[in-house]
Amino acid sequence: MLAIEQVGIIKKYGFKINEAQLDDMIYLDASLKESIRLTQRTVCERKVENDYVFSNGSVIKKGSIVKFDLFSHSRDKRIHGIDPHSFVPERNLLNKTKLSDVSLSSFTWSVGEHKCPAIGYSITQLKIVAAIFIRYFQIGQASNLNAEHKGYKMLNTIRHVNAELYLKPHNILEYNLT
């Protein structure tokens, strides 16, 4: 789908990528959002600046460290639907959510006053680089482009067990998209 979308954009605008084309990269946006969702840091830590009282009377004292488990949140069926452990960009298309959205389903850019001030710039860079790779390379996790995914290492960050990335040059306009 990513290659098909890029071929359509190339036919409409030409091969050179510019910012005007990025809004048409809908499947790329959904794929980047899904990829980030599945590889978020395992824990987000914050220090409480003031006492916080919940509606049930529970209190988090000033100076306490609170942690939010992004890994579990990003794989919660109640939020992400069926098969939350799998890479399914279409879930973002069906929910009409974009990479730039800040919502219950996405804390990529943080929230509130700590929200990233460079969301638009970051997304622009991500899309341009991803589009270039899609246009110029077949991408796989091993020299065999059809190799099985070997899982993840769970440390402070989530990493693929197979750290190898294989890029096979190609001209996307000559690539068999069927």
From TrEMBL:
One of its GO terms (cellular component) is membrane. This is Cytochrome P450. Coiled coil: none annotated. Transmembrane segments: none annotated. Pfam families: p450 (PF00067). SUPFAM superfamilies: Cytochrome P450. InterPro entries: Cyt_P450 (IPR001128), Cyt_P450_sf (IPR036396). It comes from Smittium simulii. Belongs to the cytochrome P450 family. Keywords: Heme, Iron, Membrane, Metal-binding, Monooxygenase, Oxidoreductase, Transmembrane, Transmembrane helix. It is found in: Membrane.
